Amino acid sequence: MDTSTLRHQDINHVWHPFTPMQEYATEETPIIVSGDGFELIDSDGQRYLDGISALWCNVHGFRVPAIDDAIRDQLDRVGHSTLLGLSNEPAIRLAKELVDRTPEGLNRVFYSDSGATSVEAALKIAYQYHAQKPGGPERRDLFISVAGAYHGDTIGSVSLGAMNLFHATYRDLLFNKLTVPSPVAFRLPVGHSRESYLEHCFAELERTIVENHARVAAFVIEPLVQGAAGILVHPPGYLKRVRELTADYDIPLIADEVAVGFGRTGTMFACEQENVTPDLMCLAKGLTGGYLPVAATLATDAIFEAFLDVPWAGKTFYHGHTFTGNPLGCAAALASLDLFDTNDVLGNIRSNATRLSTRLTGFAARCSSVGEIRHKGIMAGIELVKDAESLEPFTADRRIGHKVTLAARCRGVIVRPLGDTIVLMPAPAMPGELVERLCDNVFDAIENVLSEER
Ligand SMILES: *Cc1c(COP(=O)(O)O)cnc(C)c1O
Prior knowledge:
The protein is α/β, with parallel strands linked by helices.
């Protein structure tokens, strides 16, 4: 089909996620027809370096022979079969791999198909756990999450979320939760220094847990980096402190590693950096190398065992999705994990993390509209502001972040901002010279947009 027909049908029939559709209809958005290495190719043959890992999930690039072959091989066996009352080989092998690679103690794998569903499963597991745990049932109906949290778009995960832009619309539909302040603030509340604010956050964390623990079903956190909030990097020790307090007060900890898992922060899982084992861990995005929708909620034996009894005791986890444990997706995930080892992807991440750090620091020094650079591993956010002294933002109607996206696209690079924070999220296996190219073009796009806006 030619580009204009495709575009016409796209605008008339496809409702894009997180997309203002009125504006979308006026823009000539690339229509991707193939991928090659770390580039995407559109219906006009134009190539784009993917600077956001296909929205934070791609790991080894596109059309990776080992993953393509693993999927084809599985396709020759069976494309899908259910995990309800049956099992399948790739799902079994992947569960074992995940147990071996995640922090010690997470021995049980519950599959679903997206980050949101992995969080949703964790919520229900935590809630039901308290009703069935040894030592007597407890009714715990509150969750604690961190301000600015993003855990997905189903109603349960939105209930945990704390981002006004995405979540306020649905307020009436959501269950109650408690929110602790995020331990990082771009604009500090009046009267606070960085140090006093951090102290305040630790104090609030402790107070919230101490006062409410008897009602708290679980504490949910994006470990080390809050992604959708704008790549907010937590100070060292925060996750550890959350783990200590939740353990002291017998509150299960749910680590949402959907964004940070699979190397993004520099280690395979973010929890490793603070020696934390959560009670439940959510994995999705990078799990299949960014190929297919498979997600997993890992649980400790202690959680799992509360669901064991004779069938008629009613302790079963009555939850699941049709495509749970899809064999094609699990085969892709196994191939992706294998590539982490054979290609030393974590080593590549470390060198690209250093490269990004150098490049970002250099850019911040020469661009007067950079309010803040936030960076951990291969996740980076460049917050653009109207005035770097006062941190006065650009007004929303200026669409600065969006304009940078369009300018980057003209330079053959795909990025997607969070408001006026330009996100760089190169794939874990992206070669260093492509990360350089990504930086060059994005920085150039930012400078170009800013010069036209002045
Ligand atoms: C993206 C994301 C999710 C949601 O994942 P989906 O696959 O889009 O449902 C959940 N948690 C975090 C931290 C994420 O970044």
